[in-house]
């Protein structure tokens, strides 16, 4: 029984670390997306784009990922494959800034979709105060006042 609890806890930890990493990447992309291309145009440096796409948990191995069920492994792999495509493009592109931004928009949409699937499968990361963030959508409103 204790072994099962340890396995469940290890799985939850792996899920949370992956969810944290993915959320941080998406947050940085959203925050820096305009400035990345201004810097790319002005400095001719790819570094602002590549540092934005960096992952904190690049050293995750099969040993850690084996804790996830196979569907979750596939969803995680898809997200990081989309991220790798974006990173590869920025590393080797010879496109001008406007073309690079158009290509980024296309690749970013794919990454956003992969991130939505990842969150739907793994859940949101636990916040620093210990609560889990949940997205909600209003399905119906009632005009009645609550007692």
Structural commentary:
With 147 residues, the protein is mainly alpha-helical. It is 69% helix and 0% strand. The protein is built from five helices and no strands. The chain has helices spanning 2-43, 47-52, 62-65, 70-92, 97-122. Helix 1 (2-43) packs antiparallel against helix 5 (97-122). The model has no long low-confidence stretch (mean pLDDT 85).
What is the global morphology? elongated
Computed Rg: 19 Å
Helix proportion: 55-70%
Main beta sheet: strand number and arrangement?
none
Number of strands: 0
In percent, how much strand structure appears in the residues? under 5%
Mean pLDDT score: 85
Instruction: Look at the helices and sheets and give the structural class.
Output: mainly alpha
Low-confidence stretches: none
Helical run tally:
5
CA(first)-CA(last) distance: 45 Å
Order of helices and strands: HHHHH
Tell me briefly what this model is.
The chain has 147 residues and is mainly α. Helices cover 69% and strands 0% of the residues. It is built from five helices and no strands.
What are the SSEs and their pairings?
Blueprint (H helix, E strand, L loop, with lengths): L1 H42 L3 H6 L9 H4 L4 H23 L4 H26 L25
Helix pairs in contact: 1-5, 4-5
Provide keyphrases for this structure.
147 residues, mainly alpha, 5 helices, 69% helix
């Amino acid at each position: 029984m204790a072994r099962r609890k340890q396995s469940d806890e290890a799985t939850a930890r792996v899920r949370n670390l992956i969810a944290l990493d993915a959320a941080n990447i998406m947050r940085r992309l959203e925050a820096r997306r305009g400035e990345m291309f201004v810097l790319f145009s002005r400095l001719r440096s790819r570094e602002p784009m590549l540092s934005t796409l960096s992952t904190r948990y690049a050293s995750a191995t099969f040993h850690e990922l084996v804790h996830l069920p196979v569907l979750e492994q596939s969803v995680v792999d898809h997200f990081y494959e989309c991220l790798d495509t974006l990173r590869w493009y920025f590393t080797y592109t010879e496109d001008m800034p406007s073309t690079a931004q158009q290509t980024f928009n296309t690749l970013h949409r794919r990454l956003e979709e992969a991130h939505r699937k990842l969150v739907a499968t793994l859940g949101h990361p636990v916040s620093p105060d210990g609560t889990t963030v949940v997205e909600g959508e209003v399905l119906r409103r009632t005009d009645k006042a609550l007692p």
